[in-house]
Request: fold
Amino acid sequence: MELTVGPNQFFWSADRWTEFYDDLASTPVNRVVLGELVCSKRLPFYQDRIPEAVSTLIEAGKEVALTSLALITLKRERKQTAELAEMGVEVEINDLTALPHLPKGAKLSVGPLVNVYNEGTLVWLASQGVRRICLTPELPLASVRTLAFAGADLGVEIEIWGHGRLPLAISGRCYHARLHKRTKDNCQFACEDDPDGLDVTTLEGKPFLAMNGVQTLSDTYATALHQIDTLSEAGVSALRLSPQSNGFIELCKLYRQVLDKDISGADAVETLTRMDDNVRLSDGFLTGNRGVDWSGEQAQPTLRI
Amino acid sequence: MSQSQALIPLFPPGLARVLRVIPLAPLSLSLTAYSRKIAKTHPSLFRRLGEFDHVKFVLDPVDLPFVICLAPNGGVPRVTVTRGKGDGVARISGPLAALIGLVHGAYDGDALFFSRDLVVEGDTGAALALRNAIDDAELDLAQEIAAISGPFSGPLLHLTAFIQRHTQVYLTRPEEAEAW
Amino acid sequence: MVMEIVCPAGTPAALRAAVKAGAHTVYCGFNDETNARNFPGLNFDRQEMREGIAFAHAHGSKVLIAINTFPRAGNEAIWHRAVADAESCHVDAVILADLGLLDYAARNHPGLRRHLSVQAAAANADVINFYARTFDVKRVVLPRVLSVQEIAAINAETEVETEVFVFGGLCVMAEGRCSLSSYATGLSPNMNGVCSPASHVEYREDKGVLDARLGGYTIHRVGQNEPAPYPTLCKGCFGASDKRGHLFEDPVSLNAEQLIPQLQKAGVTALKIEGRQRSRSYVTQVVRNFRTAVDALEAGRPMPEGMLARLSEGQAMTTGAYKKTWR
Reply:
């Protein structure tokens, strides 16, 4: 099974961004998807650094793809999307708008924010030249299994959400701007201060969601660390690890160790919880009753109020 | 047709006091008979309840000194009127006129809920199923009563029409205006 | 051309009420997980659908069937059957969201008119034209993330008819791309056709203070005389940094009644009312109101003042994304 690093969902400074991808070059991952997924206003801050990051990663032997935006509405965003194809790198489609812009025969993949729930959609995407699909994190194991099976027949590799705060929703409205009583057009980049999203709690003070500009994520970090054997048996080709500001390199190594059977999944989860005791885990979409559920022992959430 | 939902008439307190002492067993019996009659003429109402056709509901007219327990029983309903809190998976409370107006499609359930004229407790899904099933049945309680009242049906309908005019309580199904 | 009023019906009685109140078109769904309002006690079995469509056609109204959830892997046959049954019920169009289902319908039921559901969240002219080219989609229901100017720009670049929401519950997130509900309750709009389902809602009233919980999370609390909210996730009350409030959206509903003239200028074909889960009383009042409005517009009379606030969640209204400052 391969490891893919998904596009960074958060807004980091250009220097931090560069440093992150430089570090990734030496980690045991197979594939890196980069570029701006969430908000087109962030892109100009690091756009000129993308070509170099791509070269660095390719030289380090990684496969590289560029993501489209998750929600494309403005003229500027449509233009950005059309230009993606001209970079000469594989494009990961996260809004279907990107598809008609890509040249016939180009290498295509589909990211977790395009709705692929069933074989019919998979077959149709395959007919459009798609060779890899990272499924929406919402899917239960039974669906993953069915789709991986269907994908194998069509030469489409199936990747699933391996680790990270779950992308739950995308909106036209910017919640960070709203929180600071600003409009989206005059957001003054309020999301910049929250490199892993801003924690959102319920009225009882329970951690629940995370705000990231126009995106809403889960509070919990989904992990498939202890389910790798099951997923591999289900025919899943790759796990997606979603960038986070702390300990990401260690995280990549931990996943690789489990894939290489150097340590057990259970031990790896143990290590994971020790890495940051303020991180709450979940695996409910895959195997539980609801997304937030966690099949392992759950430490009481630490509240920061 | 329904206009403002602002003013929901309350049951006259004097009359409500009288109801405190009347025996409830006969009322339960006749309401059960009445509901079985409705079950016969509106079988789809119970079909719509789906998984909730065997649970118990409590309807609590807050301006009356008793509650109405409704057990749909898969189409053989039983109604029990009691002075206690009643027993059921879901409780729907509101002025009698609101509950009756809801049955007659004069009010929108969500709107009454938003304005807190209606309070739902317990299994919200069950309450919703009941609301939707009743809304689709297009019941007219006065017509149903008249239909089982034989020779008294004519005068009874006149009486309900009279009360409706003078109390603004929707005792019958309002005409849906014809726009075509 | 009078703007088309597209009205919801969760039950046969609501369908008849909508037709009588003057709806040009009514949309509804089968009583299973194939539609995005799969609520207890709602929707149509095959027989009711056939009769409802016949009733509407006899009175000059059209009917659309929403088959707008995303078929479950391994069980697509349920959705395929829904499309086939919709055609045999003589429906005027089906409203679809899933790529695979659109492809299936285009290949197997080419004569059945296809609309693109809001659940597909097609938010720009490029992707709308792509859907039209690929699946011969005749109309697109636009996601509620666009301003009136953006809608006008889309219409200038496409031949596909556009339908926009003008009243009712308001999704704050791009539709069809939101897993908040399944994260908290296990039931999702995309897979199960429900959002923040009633089965996971719990109300607790204590000394006039009403708490609303969803999946065990308290996301609403109101005092004695405040309007009661339904705990829809995106309209819940939350805390973040030192602030507390409705961080995503207030408990409001959409009312774009006064924007109808602008929407007409923007080239919009049809005005959609949300609320298949609402009563026939709601349907009658809202349809009559909007029908009066479009008839007034057509006759060159001023827009009538709205009177629908009471029907709204939180008893408050917004024009949503149609005004750019909402974002």
Q: What stands out?
A: Chain A touches chain C through 73 residues (CB under 8 Å). Residues 141-154 of chain A form the longest helix (14 residues).
